[in-house]
Amino acid sequence: TVIVLDFGGQYNQLIARRVRECNVYCEIFSYKTDIEKIKEIQPKGIIFTGGPNSVYLEDSPTYTREIFQLGIPVLGICYGAQLMMHLLGGEVGTAPVREYGKIEVTVDPSAKLFREVSEKTICWMSHNDYIAKAAPGFDIIAHTSDCPVAAVQNTEKNLYAVQFHPEVLHTQEGKKMLSNFVYQVCECSGDWRMDSFVEESIQAIRQKVGKGKVLCALSGGVDSSVAAVMLSKAVGNQLTCVFVDHGLLRKNEGDEVEAVFGPEGAYNLNFIRVNAQERFYERLKGVEEPESKRKIIGEEFIRVFEEEAKKIGAVDFLVQGTIYPDVVESGVGGESTVIKSHHNVGGLPDYVDFKEIIEPLRDLFKDEVRKAGLELGIPEYLVFRQPFPGPGLGIRIIGEVTAEKVKMVQDADAIWREEIANAGLDKKIGQYFAAITNMRSVGVMGDERTYDYAVALRAVTTTDFMTAESAEIPWEVIGKATSRIVNEVKHINRVLYDCTGKPPATIEFE
Ligand code: XMP
């Protein structure tokens, strides 16, 4: 195991993921974790992440110096690098020139960290502070034109620090550097695989649950499906899956989910469908603010579960298919800032009467969840389904949610998805959907003036849903979908295409 100590950077889970890509198990811990806990784990290596602070400010996150005396290799990244230098007697200050973006770095290829890395290599930099002077015992092994100390090493103590971010793809040879750290420096064996993750998770769940009863929130999306099947492998009949149709699903989706996971399907999940459309619409009446909508949908969900749980009898555990990007963007997973309060994460009402929540996919990225799904024998067409957010169409209807708008967005979305599939683009695009804007505008239909809604089409390419680019869809495909939507869907007279990437937008509209 390699552990990542989280000091609040945005890319921390990416570091863990890159290490797992080297077939080395990796987990993230807060910088508040006690050193005794780390000694217990006996990791083969430790990585300090970046973070938004300056090390010399009083309440910046820090760690005990003892960590460098355990004989465990440490790699500091960005803030982590500065912190290591600061703690070990180097100097950190405001950089005379702030570096941001892709910067050419000159490295010393004889250093273990840079084995087989080009001498001049493009790295991603994002820092205001810099290492003005390396700590005693450290050699400088990389620099840029503005940053004399871009990387340092102390080979005797196995301590390494880099100012740039090897975990982001913009650092062209970053993967190589991290793999050098785990293999050359930490001497990891690299025998961790997704099948062992699945096997270990099943064992751990079995142990935790014992003879307890488990209730799973199944939405039919990739994450909850993988979580449900994993649970069913672990505890079989002790599991009941409840599927809440909140009336905010895609067109015909409720029936499709029931067909796959219900009693007629291939899995034994004790599947219960709850049709709760009316309650959700009622509670959403007049609510426009995105975070309020998300909270209402999330809370109502929990209430429906509670009621179901009461019918079933005592339930000990609630399973949720939360994955890592949900956790980080909700700001409950680590030290980084809140972007959106994702459904399924945090914010449980106080009166919840389950003993505990199980989230078996909490550390994984979407593509890792998919690998786990395949490992569990879930068919490909389910595993590669595009993601659908927990609050569903509720966050694809900008402003107030009404039954009429749900119908409009469902129909427009179904047409858009059909046209994308007809064009053979469905496997190439990470996520694509329609959202109904809160804007009405004037149009003309036949000889009549119309004053109707505008629908926005969205399609993005992405690998991890943390960042995304607007997909370049051929104009004919957009044109065909547009004319079908305005002709077939009542009260839509305008179609817009969203060209924005993430950042600065998010994938969903709310
Ligand atoms: P954003 O809009 O934050 O979305 O760029 C990133 C990915 O997360 C999905 N998403 C959610 N998934 N519960 C979920 O399970 C949520 O509340 C939620 N909100 C967004 C979104 O569809 C995209 O794939």
Automatic annotation (TrEMBL):
One of its GO terms (cellular component) is cytosol. It catalyses: XMP + L-glutamine + ATP + H2O = GMP + L-glutamate + AMP + diphosphate + 2 H(+). Keywords: ATP-binding, Glutamine amidotransferase, GMP biosynthesis, Ligase, Nucleotide-binding, Purine biosynthesis. ATP binds at residues 219-225. This is GMP synthase [glutamine-hydrolyzing]. The active site is at residues 78, 165, 167. Transmembrane segments: none annotated. Its EC number is 6.3.5.2. NCBIfam families: guaA_Cterm (TIGR00884), guaA_Nterm (TIGR00888), PRK00074.1 (NF000848). It comes from Lactonifactor longoviformis DSM 17459. SUPFAM superfamilies: Adenine nucleotide alpha hydrolases-like (SSF52402), Class I glutamine amidotransferase-like (SSF52317). Residues 192-385 form the GMPS ATP-PPase domain. Homodimer. Pfam families: GATase, GMP_synt_C, tRNA_Me_trans. Pathway: Purine metabolism; GMP biosynthesis; GMP from XMP (L-Gln route): step 1/1. One of its GO terms (molecular function) is ATP binding. PANTHER family: GMP SYNTHASE [GLUTAMINE-HYDROLYZING] (PTHR11922:SF2), GMP SYNTHASE-RELATED (PTHR11922). Catalyzes the synthesis of GMP from XMP.
